[in-house]
Amino acid sequence: MAAGVLSGAGTAAADGTDGTPQTRGGATATINGLKTYGEAVIHQVGGDQRVEAGLFEMSVDGGGTLQTYCVDLHNPTQRDAHYEETPWSGTSLGGNKDAGRIRWILQNSYPQVNDLAALARQAGTGPLTEQDAAAGTQVAIWRYSDHAKVDAVDPQAEKLADYLQKSARDLGEPHASLTLDPPAVSGRPGALLGPVTVHTNAGAVTVSPPPDAATSGVRITDSTGKAVTSARDGSRLYFDIPEDSAGSGAGGSSQGLDSGGGTAQLTVQASTTVPVGRAFTSDSRSQTQILAGSSESTVSATATATWAAEGAIPAVSVRKDCAKGGVDLFVANRGDRPFTFELMGAEHTIPARASQTVTVPLQEDQAYDFTITGPHGFSQRFTGVLDCKTQGALTTRAAKAHNEPAPASVGGTMAPGTDLAATGGSAITPLIAGVAIGFVVIGGAVLVLLRKREQPGG
User: Which terminus of the chain is more exposed, N or C, with fewer CB under 10 A?
Assistant: First the structure.
């Protein structure tokens, strides 16, 4: 009742039966590029490498601006890459014992501390420009995120990096700006399905029912059955499904699976500042970022309900789990029959009225694309790329001219003029290409010699 395959490419989406992309919730944004920066030198086996180091800017979907630093030094940043707010457990920070020190640096340096004179006195650096402050902060972060041997070129920036590195203390992971837990529920029509709990740092969130609620009869309520249009942190939301509903409405958020069941989706949205230290990832293999500053920004989250009159009634959600080296499928079955599905050659059965976590193991940088199907037309597709590790540089490149900043320059290892979106995620690519060419040449020479030996009189 399910199919699972691995793919050579993927996008950050978990598609419901209506094809609408779902995320874990929070802010989503497009990276605009490196905005405030200086220079740094990476010391590595092949020699020193000079790169730009500093503060990125992102434009939030729906309105707002984010400032971020890189926590993935040796991967490039793709132009116009799309990012989403992500728990540390879905990034290299989840397994990094120094992740909390990075958060301390973010809270105690630029741009959170924008009084540069005060920051300079505290760190004993001498006068600091914004470029010095950004470069020094980024260098200190790299020393903990990638455990790299890296120094700032500017003396004041280097003193700031040393001060931040030595002063950093361990802090916990910040809470998400907005999430719904769980993101998928299921049950019988004629009942309240849920609860779905709101977690947010916003004062209030707007609750939007399915667009076709007027025709489908599906309502979003509290535990007493009272319709709600707004909520706050800790609020519990429910899907009120009419007893005779098959969810056959249109509009993309509530639809029929078949005559025996249906599905609907609610959306919550708010305007808030995203907490400093939240991670942002992109499945375009663009380097992982960590939040340093946020304007008032739009954040959102979705939850899906599935119902049926009889049989298995699955609710499925997914999240990346770097500690386990894969993705976790959370499968709940609120029906009266077992829900059985096959994934990557293994069969899984969730008993009636039970739930289970199924981990799909993946290799680093491996794309996945699998679809879980079930009774009453249930189908949910999950795609993405597992990106849990920072990569060490294997080659040294010529220094990039400082007057030619590119959106992907921080942490990049690309030569000037390279199309960063087409380079891939590792500095090993040129080495592989060179070795491959060498083998081709050697192979050609061997064939020539063999043919000469096979000729008469040879």
Answer: C
Residue by residue, what is the 3-state secondary structure of 220-281? EECCCCCECCEECCCCEEEEECCCCCCCCCCCCCEEEEECCEEEEEEEEEEEECCCCCCEEE
Cis peptide before 182 (omega within 30 of 0): yes
Dist. CA 54–CA 292, nearest whole Å: 11
CA distance 412 to 408: 6
Strand partners, 39: 52
Angle at 205 between CA 173 and CA 180, to 5 degrees: 50
User: Residues 71, 139: contact at Cβ < 8 Å?
Assistant: no
Specify the pTM.
Answer: 0.79
Q: What is the pLDDT of residues 169-182, one digit of tens each?
A: 999 999 999 999 99
Say which residue the tokens 């977690």 belong to: 199
Distance of CA 167 to the CA centre of its chain: 29
* Confidence at residue 157, expressed as pLDDT on a 0 to 100 scale: 98
Residue 74: CA count within 13 A, CB half-sphere? 24
Give the whole-angstrom CA distance, residue 172 versus residue 108: 15
* Chain position carrying tokens 């290299």: 92
| Minimum mean pLDDT range among 266-270, 379-383, 444-448 | 444-448
Query: Of 359, 367, 326, 369, which is closest to residue 89 (Cα–Cα)?
Result: 326
Q: Is 203 exposed, middle or buried (0-12, 13-18, 19+ CB in 10 A)?
A: exposed
pLDDT of 297 > 90? The answer is: yes
Cα(91)–Cα(323) distance, integer angstroms: 9
